[in-house]
Specification:
Layout (H helix, E strand, L loop, with lengths): L1 H30 L7 E5 L2 E5 L1 H7 L1 H8 L9 E3 L5 H11 L13 H10 L3 H15 L8 H14 L10 H9 L3 H6 L8 H20 L1
Parallel strand pairs: 1-3
Antiparallel strand pairs: 1-2
Helix pairs in contact: 1-4, 2-3, 4-5, 7-8, 8-10
């Protein structure tokens, strides 16, 4: 029993150490000024060197901030109070060249989309759709129920505003319908899935039973 507890703690520590390493790698590339950086975002005391034009291209919020009669227009350092530096870095990763869908992290995905919506960065939602597609169609690694329900909850929340996400709803419903009821209800994400999606999962499962019985 004690050995099992020690093993779990060791695994958790290893995962936390790896995440801290990845976090630092993501952060450091913005902490160092390069030839294209011409403005600084200050988040939780960290100074992130970024390109103003790139921000304006992807975010109408930043474009307004830098071109209209706001005090930020002539500042060289822009404070972003009440924002989390890790989320801002994730947002920047989505719009900077070299983007890959591996830069999404399920544990922060909801918060990232909320931040992207606040700044009007539609590119993040486009990238999110590509990430979902890659996971749904990956033959080497099947999706876990928590992942299916997390994605489905996000699609239900944002698809009316960002239509590209609605196109993968049926694929997620199909995958969820093939999971046991017990697994669905014990998932930590089940409660975040709207009743309409829960209903459609049930209906799809019933349709599957009917097809089996008719054969």
């Amino acid at each position: 029993m004690q050995s099992s507890t020690v093993t779990k703690k060791s695994v958790a520590y290893g995962q936390q150490t790896e995440e801290n390493r990845r976090r630092q790698e993501r952060l450091v590339k913005y902490e160092e000024k390069d030839e294209f950086s011409d403005i600084v975002l200050v988040v939780e005391g960290k100074r992130l060197h970024v390109n103003k034009t790139l921000l304006m291209m992807h975010s109408p919020e930043f474009k307004t901030m830098f071109t209209a009669y706001f005090r930020e227009k002539d500042l060289q350092e822009i404070p972003l109070p009440e924002k989390k530096v890790d989320l801002v870095v994730e947002l920047l990763d989505q719009i900077y060249p070299g983007y890959t869908t591996d830069k999404f992290h399920d544990e922060t995905l909801r918060d990232l989309l909320q931040l992207a919506d606040e700044y009007g960065v539609q590119q993040v939602f486009h990238n999110c759709r590509a990430y979902f597609d890659r996971r749904i169609n990956c033959k080497n690694k099947s999706m876990k129920i928590d992942e299916i329900l997390l994605f489905l909850g996000i699609v239900e929340e944002w698809s009316k505003k960002y239509n590209q996400l609605s196109l993968i709803r049926s694929a997620l419903i199909e995958q969820a319908s093939q999971v046991s009821t017990h697994s669905l209800k014990t998932s930590e994400y089940y409660s975040s899935v709207p009743a309409t999606a829960q209903r459609d999962i049930l209906m799809r499962r019933l349709e599957g039973f009917e097809i089996l019985n008719s054969e």
